[in-house]
Please model this.
Amino acid sequence: MPELPEVETVRRGLAPVLEGAVIARAQVNRPDLRWPFPERMAERLTGQRVERLRRRSKYILADLSSGETLIVHLGMSGRMIVSGGGARQAPGVFFHDHPAPEKHDHVVLDTEAGMRVTFNDARRFGAMDLVATDRAEAHWLLAGLGPEPLGNAFSDDHLARAFAGRRTPVKAALLDQRIVAGLGNIYVCEALFRSGISPLRHAGRIGRPRITRLVSDIREVLAEAIEAGGSSLRDYRQADGDLGYFQHNFRVYGREGEPCTTPGCGGIVRRKVQSGRSSFYCPDCQR
Model:
C-alpha cells in the first residue's frame, strides 16, 4: 500500500493538472470500490473547479468550488494516471496522449483544458468519497488521525506523551495512525534503523534523547523518499507513469540476511514478523 511519500508524490504530480482546472466531464464506471461511491458522484463532480489539492495522511483531498471535497485513497494498487496535452511539460511531469481505456479504469476526470486523470485500481481496495469541505476533517476516514509527521504538531513532546507507559513495541506504536498519520511499514523500519532503536523495544522504554532523534530521523527519511518520488515495490507509479526510486536507498527494509550498512557494525539484517508485518532491523546496532 502506498505510504505518505508515495501519496505526496502523486499529489504533486496531479497539482499542475487539477489545481485551478474545471472538471468538464466525470465518468464513474462502477458503483463501488472498497466501499460504494457517493450518490450522483459523476454529476456532483462535473462542472466543478478544483480550488486546492492537498494531502492528509495517505489520502488526497481535492477541494471543489461546490463547497465539497473529494477524498481519494489509492488502496493497494490504485494509480492516478495523467494524460493529454501532447508534449506539455510541467515541473518534473511529462503528460502523454490519452491511452486506450483499460478494464480497471474506474473513475475518469476530463478537464476543460483537455487533460485527463484516470483512477485505475486492479484490486479495487481504493476508495473515493465526497464530503462538505468545512466538515472534511470530521469525515470518518480522517477524524481519528494523528498529526502529520512533517508538520509542526509532530514533535518530540508529542511522541514522548504518546509513548509514555506504553508496553507495545515501538514499531506498532509508530504504525498507529492515531499517534502519527501516514507512516507505514517501509519508512518506520528505515527511521528506526537510522535512530538505532530496535522495533521490538517497548515504546514506553525509549528515553527522551532517543525520541528526539527518532522524530528527526522520521522527518529526514520521509523528505528523502518524497524527493526520490517514493518507493516502487509492486504497483506504485508516479502520476506521469514513472517509477519511484527510493527503494534503491533502503538501508534495512527488504535486506534480510545482508550485512548491516552501519560502518563498523558487522551485523546481519534480520526479519521478524510483528502483527502480520515484516520488521527489518540489525540486532547489533538497534537496541
Remarks:
- The longest strand covers residues 50-56.
- The domain at 4-138 is CATH 3.20.190.10 (N-terminal domain of MutM-like DNA repair proteins).
- Helices lie at 4-18, 41-45, 156-163, 170-175, 185-195, 208-227.
